[in-house]
Amino acid sequence: MEDYKLKVFCTVAEVKSFSRASEIIHLTQPAVSAQIQVLEDYYGTKLFDRTTNNVTLTATGEILYKYAREILSLYAETEKSICRLTGLLKGSIKVGASTTVGNYLMPKIIIDFLKENSDKVKINLRVGSTKKISDLLNSSNIDLGIVEGDIKSQKITVDKFLEDELHLIVSPNHGWSNKEEIDVASLQEEPIILREEGSGSRQLIEKLFVKYGLSIQNMKVFLMLESIEAIKEAVKRDIGVAFESRIAIKKELQDGSLKAINVKGERITRAFSIIYRKKGFCYHLVDEFVAFIKGYDFNTFLFNNNDVLPT
């Protein structure tokens, strides 16, 4: 229970757009305008200055925004307190996940969470690059994000929960398939397959190249693909080499369709993180889902003694 008009008002104020607000809260743009009009009629004042390209709060709008956020925050805290007492979980969460996490971690986590909770809980998952998920969070299109890679935004809180490692992968028929490690300089001579710009994996590999005085322009970049499965398939066909997460290549390492190699002198690691808007309202269901992720037994799910990884 909350004052829906205030939620609509705050959404418009934060995204500075009636059309974007309508997408986020799943109302038509006229319906959003009608909600704002009701508030403006009630308070007898204009709450927004509207131009062709911009929507900004008026002085009275700024006052209402300050108190509306406090009111909505109290609604959220009330819900948390009552749900903790009753043990009831209900509602829906909009989750965004970057590609590796979204394809290889979140489906299992979400299924296990729903098994433990009532059928009144719904989780909507959107998958994209780390940058896309960050943008969705900033625009209030999702409640929280699960990402790999760096997030540079003063509006977002980053909470690391799991370490991941990237390995160089090659076809079993590749000349490097029996090597335990190769040096970074050798990569300049080999066709390489990269993820798209904005992905967490791409960020990490670019940092590795820069460390050794290299850049993407120095490399024989044969393909750039958004799909991890497409990258793995290209490597299996010996079209090039690539860097992929241990999580994403688990099955292929076990069945022998891919080989993993270390990079000499390097351990390529990154953190998986939960990200939130600093100004967002955190409801009980979101808190419980985050706690479930942090308490999840990733070791038994992700890794076992059959993993064929370089030492």
User: Number of domains in the coordinates?
Assistant: 2
Q: What string gives the helices and strands in order?
A: HHHEEHEHHEHEEEEHEHEHEEHH
Question: Sheet bearing the most strands, described?
Answer: 10 strands, mixed
Tally of contiguous helical segments: 12
For this structure, the CATH topology of the largest domain is: D-Maltodextrin-Binding Protein, domain 2
State which percent range the strand residues make up: 15-25%
Based on Cα principal axes, name the global outline: elongated
The CATH architecture assignment of the largest domain turns out to be 3-Layer(aba) Sandwich
Helical proportion? 40-55%
| N- to C-terminal distance | 54 Å
Rounded to the nearest angstrom, the radius of gyration is 23 Å
Outline the low-pLDDT stretches.
none
Task: Please identify the top-level CATH class of the largest domain.
Answer: Alpha Beta
Structure class: alpha/beta
- Topology, number of strands: 12
Summed over residues and divided by their number, the pLDDT gives a mean of 86
Describe this protein's structure.
With 311 residues, the protein is α/β, with parallel strands linked by helices. It folds into 2 domains: 4-86, Winged helix-like DNA-binding domain superfamily/Winged helix DNA-binding domain (Arc Repressor Mutant, subunit A, Orthogonal Bundle); 89-311, 3-Layer(aba) Sandwich (D-Maltodextrin-Binding Protein, domain 2), CATH 3.40.190. Helices cover 44% and strands 24% of the residues. It is built from 12 helices and 12 strands. The longest helix has 28 residues, at 59-86.
